[in-house]
Amino acid sequence: MRLPSVARGLAPLAIAALVAPSIATQARAQSKAPERLSATERSIARSVDAHNSAALALLVRLVDINSGTTNHAGVRRVGDILRTQFDSLGFTTRWVDGAAFHRAGHLVAEHPGPSPKILVIGHLDTVFDPSSPFQKFVKLDDSTARGPGVIDMKGGDVIALYALRALKDAGALDSMHVVVVYDGDEEDAGSPLGAARQALTDAAHGATAALGFEDGAGDPRTAVISRRGDISWTLTTTGHTAHSSQIFTKEYGAGAIYEAARVLDQFYRQLSTQRYLTFNPGIIVGGTAVSLDSTQSAGTAAGKTNVVADSALVSGDLRTLSPAQLADAQRIMKQIVAQTLPMTTAHLEFADGYPPMAPTAGNKRLLAMYDRASRDLGFGPVVAVDPSRAGAADVSFVANIVPMAIDALGLSGHDDHSEQETADLRMLPVQTKRAAVLMYRLTHAGGTHDAVP
Ligand SMILES: [Zn+2]
């Protein structure tokens, strides 16, 4: 997952340290009141406990294998280990080769069954390259461990797998239709993006719900039902080059730099007050000879104070909360670009990126089911994270395909994307039970409390 900077440093350690004991205490209290769980659900919970040390051992093994996105062999090794696990649960598995989009590829596992289809989403890669000093799982104390990808998101991959194992042990998996997609390039998506996300979007078709196992905001009392989309744009303006003494005349007009400034100023005036809508011009070059490199993160510009600039380039991002907000913002941005200053042109191009995951009624219903499962298990309520604190993630690619989507069902902790990435291991069985009971209720009529919507 790619987190917005605001979410970092919100002292997740304090949150996790506060939360886990209270969740654990509640669980102990609740274990005395199993009536809110069906017999099958109680057996699922028992299976999770029985397999917890095996789950932890698998997590250690996966974290100790470097799978930075560019390390294709490492991504594949992690994929192969998980593939064997899904094979042992009766899934049909395959590796989707990533050559067409310049990445390692993806693991896809499918378990056929008569139930409504659910999609499980994870990723195999991490942000840590083989050259990073951060390479191994290190236990810090009984309940805390540090390691590359331990929460983002090898912990989540293991949680989903062991939730399915518990469902199998309880005899529930047989009738379940589940598709699991673990992408190998979530941290740095391949291109073309459409090809890189084809396996995921194909798997989403016909699914009633998509469950993402990212680590979320580090607070296990929360889950994600909306994420802002993140696309990029490039503004290109041109002007009529001339001696600067001629600027503003009818013949030569305003020049490319004023035109770019006008557009950005209007973007700000007309669009900067909408909630959850942000657009950031990250780089600008203007003058008589300008260029931006292919990654749009560096550019060159040459020009003279006595020469009217004939070109300018601006590159930025656009983050929105819903497809409607995105379409509206793009419409207004294009309208602004069309009202050019004299003797100038302006062109705006949008590039593919992460689509928005809006907080739909379906996502809210799924959260209510997850909250219910958590309460019935004795782990307390779960509420939605504010989308401005939830970065972009792969669930966003299917959020407009499936009727219900949720994310952040993975392992909580803090400081992902840094060498301080730390997991709260007490949450491993908690999150696994929550996910397993949710999956059970999504696929089985007769489970307790509003099953199979
Ligand atoms: Zn992630």
Radius of gyration: 25 Å
Taking pLDDT < 50 over at least 5 consecutive residues as the criterion, the unreliable ranges are 2-19, 448-453
What proportion strand? 15-25%
The small molecules bound here are: zinc ion
Biggest β-sheet: strands ordered side by side in the sheet: 1-2-6-3-7-16
Count of DSSP-assigned helices: 10
Q: Distance N terminus to C terminus? A: 29 Å
The CATH class label of the largest domain is Alpha Beta
Give the proportion of residues in helices: 25-40%
**Which class of secondary structure composition applies to the elements?**
alpha+beta
Q: How many domains would you count in the coordinates?
A: 2
SS elements, strand count? 18
Please give the CATH architecture of the largest domain: 3-Layer(aba) Sandwich
Order of helices and strands: HHHEEEEEHEHHEEEHEEEEHEHEEEEH
What is the CATH H-level superfamily of the largest domain? Answer: Zn peptidases
Find the CATH topology of the largest domain: Aminopeptidase
Q: Give the averaged pLDDT, no decimals.
A: 92
Characterization of the model:
With 453 residues, this protein is α+β, with helices and mostly antiparallel strands. It folds into 2 domains: 5-227 and 356-443, Aminopeptidase; 229-350, 2-Layer Sandwich (Alpha-Beta Plaits). Helix content is 35%, strand content 22%. The protein is built from 10 helices and 18 strands. The protein has helices at residues 12-30, 39-63, 72-88, 150-169, 193-196, 198-204, 255-271, 323-338, 361-377, 427-443; strands spanning 92-97, 105-111, 117-123, 138-141, 144-146, 177-183, 207-212, 222-223, 230-238, 278-287, 289-292, 299-302, 311-319, 345-354, 383-384, 404-406, 413-414, 422-424. Helix 2 (39-63) runs antiparallel to helix 4, helix 7 (255-271) packs antiparallel against helix 8 (323-338) and helix 9 packs across helix 10. The chain is elongated. Bound molecules: zinc ion (ZN). The site of zinc ion has 6 residues, from helix 4.
